[in-house]
Amino acid sequence: MSPLNFVRSAVAPVAFCVALLTSIVGSLPAQAANTDPAAEAWVSEVSQQAIKIISDKSLDRAGREAQFAALLDTNADMQRIAAFCLGQFLRTPTPDQKSEYIKLFNNFVVKVYVTRLSDYHDEKLVITGSQLKGDTQALVQSQINFTNGREPVKVTWWLLKKDGGYKLFDVNVVGVWLAQEQRSAFTSVINNHNGDFAALLDHLKQQIADAENGKLPTTAATTAQ
User: Fold this and answer.
1) In angstroms, rounded to a whole number, what is the distance separating the alpha carbons of residues 36 and 5?
2) Is 0.70 surpassed by the pTM of this model?
3) Alpha carbons 87 and 64: distance in angstroms, whole number
């Protein structure tokens, strides 16, 4: 089980295009000029909740998936993540296809990442810093420490300030923004089927079925270790 899989819970938003994402990522300074203690506390709390769910061996798969889905629903803007992952195909689906896509996407995230995380045991995420990005965003730097002595993995959390709190926007693992990577995968599926959005729906159904059978997709982040 790759330690990098820990943070793929999820991942990215609707209103941001590739140019905006690239410009913000490219402009990150080596040291944060303005810290955000509240964002650091938020990431610490959410990560502890996630680790608790995954480490609770009294939960069966269905119980773990239900609790993980509730955690995502509360702390990640899943509508924006799902929309962002469509890239230039955001307006391609019909209303019925869009509704089905949202349901499949949420199920995909839960199924795939609960399966990925099932072998974790009391790993610890340590906050190492933070940075404000204007009035609406914050970055939180952290690292995952492993109980088996493996090298720590650096993780950056990109948060949006929303409704007086925070929502997860994206996660960077070893230089890879995971939501952007997922968008590349989804848009490639549609492109490879001549713009047929139904192909993405079929792809998600297959990914969900594979996850239920313990088979998971290989990604750039998981092969970068």
Assistant:
1) 26
2) yes
3) 30
Distance between CA atoms of residues 95 and 103, nearest Å? 13
Q: Is the Cα torsion angle 68, 3, 11, 161 positive or negative in sign?
A: positive
What is the pLDDT, as a whole number, of residue 29? 44
Separation between Cα atoms, residue 39 and residue 45, nearest integer Å? 10
| 76: phi then psi, degrees, rounded to nearest 5 | -125, 140
Residue 225, classed as helix, strand or coil, is coil
Q: How many helices (H) and strands (E) does the chain have?
A: 7, 5
Indicate the DSSP class of residue 120.
Answer: -
Residues 71-109 have pLDDT tens digits of 999 999 899 999 999 999 999 999 999 999 999 999 999
Dist. CA 35–CA 174, nearest whole Å: 22
Contacts of 130 (CB under 8 A, 6+ apart): 32, 35, 36, 37, 39, 40, 138, 139, 140, 141
Nearest by Cα to 64 from 5, 6, 117 = 117
Alpha helices in the chain (DSSP H): 18-26, 37-55, 61-75, 78-84, 95-117, 178-191, 197-212
What's at 99, amino acid-wise? S
